[in-house]
Amino acid sequence: MAEQLVELNVKGMHCNNCAMSIHKLLEKKGLDNILVSFASEEVKFSTADQSLVPGIITDIENLGFHVVDDIATHKTPFYDKVENKFIFCAAFTAPLLLHMVLSWHLLHHPMVQLLLCLPVFLVGCLHFGKSAYSSLKGGVPNMDVLIFIGSSSAFIYSLVGTIQNLGEQYLFYETCATIITLVLLGNVLEKRSVNQTTSAVKDLMKFQQVSANRVIKDGIEVISAKDVLSGDVLLVNEGGQVPVDGEVLSGDASVNEAMITGESIPVQKKKYDTVIGGTIVQEGNIKIMATKVGSNSTLAQIIDLMKKAQAAKPPVQKLGDKVASIFVPVVILIALLTFVITYFATDAGLQRSMMHAIAVLVISCPCAMGLATPTAVMVGLGRAAKNGILIKGGDTIEAVANTKYVIFDKTGTLTTGKFCIKDIKAEPGQDIESIRGAITAIEERSNHPIAKSLVKGLIGLSKQKVILKSAVEEKGLGMRAEDVEGNNYFLGTAKLSTDNDYNISLYKNQVLVAQIAIEDTIKPDAADLIAALIKTGIKPVLLSGDKASRCTSVAKTLGITDVHAEKLPEEKLSVVNIYRKKGKTIMIGDGINDAPALTQADVGVSMNDASHIAIQSAKVILLNTDLKSVVTFLQISRHTLLTIKQNLFWAFAYNIIAIPVAALGFLNPMVGALAMAFSDVIVIGNSLRLKVKKVD
């Protein structure tokens, strides 16, 4: 039985450690293709046995999470919202803190402090205690274990002091309440910040939530885009959004495809053209037939690619994950050692020894390490997507950042795929005017791209146009024609030509009369791209199946020194392998003929239109065929990796400095809780800078 992908919406994941505990559970179950995203609150896995799913849902919920049908429609209960928990706790914590600055006797009474602290402690037990227990059960202890132990220690210590009437020096209710309140504040800020890092996917998902005007016998009915079936006829009016992928049946329109390609200039659409779901009709009205709906649509595939990409971890994250997995037990051990050494080796006493140990627990932050990579990857992939660049995995970013070689296919990548006449060489004794007339008359009867290019190139030049009686196209060869005077013509591939520059021949009554050299025009921004690559220390390489003379000509024009011409698909593989042995290699091609080479490279980049979005061979798809997007892609990748490294450096440096400072007694637990709450926010804030920072 074939494996099927199962998708679950899971509420209650508030950090990467939560995601790790679910991931570990699913791994133990032996499931495949596991993707757990705490930011988008999604869990995916593959299984051939669908009967296992209810049991897996139960196991996830036993870890302390909630599996819901739809995140968008699910309403979190008022008491379960982290914002409301924070406000509730802050209301009780504020008067507790006031006793430190006011000499009002009532606030100093142990029972008053206990009554103010108790509601906060109960909220902390339910919020952090439940999560701590679930994480221990899942085998991946999280930050909440540290918060729960720290706040509980302060509460129990104070409670014992109150019951035994040991005096004010034993009361630390404000420490317990403040730790819980400040960490909840950190959770609120973290949640809001992480939501911003996933905005690119959420923005794209909004484009799916539209209505469609379906044409029926009696007129028009308005339905949801998700209810559109393949073959339905839809009307899209000016200012409206194309609900699904389709083909234009009638009408003309100017369509803005910026959300797919990143290109703001509208594209003209007429009968038989394809349109993409989510794009906007700026001018005109069109009637379309739905061709790709639901999960098959371009937009759905882009969203799915982005979600999978966000779950793929770069190798740089492995160190952070390893440290995070052993972090909590190590911190608990350090806190115990701090207490024992401070109590027995110094004259600090029980109270100060306890505070030092609690400070160690509450200032430690494994979440910062867990958030360092996914938040940066989400923002980086989102920024790339808004520029018409789809990156299939976070791991691709690291490979790109260290690129040494970029290998280009020629036709359709560095060149436009549109041809122009370079030269017409008439045979001795032949008239160039009549040759131009014959070429124009014959090629006007053909729909081939080269034929159209020849006609366009000869507009205004052919004065003696030949009048044809008949013209027949021979597939793969050329055109045969007969004029009104009985002359026979053949215009087609120059197989017998001795000159590589001339690739089309014209025969009149079986006699060669002319040879035509046509060339594929180089894209206007190709030279700038090659120059930009060389400037950054990347070596460009040209790899093509085209003739050596033409490849050399293109390479010389662009400034490429390494040229591999006349290569078959299997030969391209060996060329890619040679460069891979020397350093990280990117291959950029059209995504179809170059599929094997794209797969073989460290990173395959497909220069393709949105209709071929699902090509599996490439790890990156450039929806906008403007070559500037290649440079943008490289720059975004480099800055994303730089951001990850900055985040990891901060997370490690913060913990390496903060824990010893707390252990030596230089830090109040409340200050520690505040520092810990904001360490996550600093990491996320640095990732969010990627949205707006200059990457060139």
List its salient traits.
696 residues; alpha+beta; Calcium-transporting ATPase, cytoplasmic transduction domain A; Rossmann fold; 23 helices
Notes on the structure:
About 50% of the residues lie in helices and about 20% in strands. With about 700 residues, it is of the alpha+beta class. Helix 21 links the parallel strand 22 and strand 23. The protein is elongated and about 125 Å long. It starts with a strand and ends in an 8-residue tail after the last helix.
Could you give the count of β-strands? 24
Any idea of the CATH class of the domain at 377-415 and 523-638? Alpha Beta
| Whole-number mean pLDDT | 81
CATH superfamily membership of the domain at 377-415 and 523-638: HAD superfamily/HAD-like
Q: CA-to-CA gap between the ends?
A: 50 Å
Count of helical regions: 23
Strand content: 15-25%
Main β-sheet, in a few words?
7 strands, antiparallel
Question: Which structural category do the helix and sheet elements fall into?
Answer: alpha+beta
| Low-confidence runs | 610-614
Label the CATH architecture of the domain at 377-415 and 523-638.
3-Layer(aba) Sandwich
Radius of gyration: 34 Å
- Residues in helix, %: 40-55%
CATH fold call of the domain at 377-415 and 523-638: Rossmann fold
Shape call: elongated
Topology of this protein?
Blueprint (H helix, E strand, L loop, with lengths): L3 E8 L4 H13 L3 E6 L4 E6 L5 H10 L3 E3 L13 H17 L6 H4 L1 H28 L5 H21 L9 H25 L1 H8 L4 E6 L2 E6 L8 E4 L8 E12 L1 H4 L5 E3 L4 E2 L4 E13 L5 H14 L5 H29 L3 H15 L2 H21 L2 E3 L2 H8 L1 E6 L1 H5 E12 L5 H12 L5 H9 L10 E7 L3 E6 L4 E6 L10 E5 L2 E12 L3 H10 L3 E5 L4 H11 L3 E3 L4 H14 L1 E6 L5 H6 L2 E5 L12 E3 L5 H36 L5 H20 L8
Helix pairs in contact: 3-5, 3-7, 5-6, 5-7, 6-7, 6-12, 7-23, 10-13, 11-12, 11-13, 11-22, 12-22, 12-23, 13-22, 13-23, 14-22, 16-17, 22-23
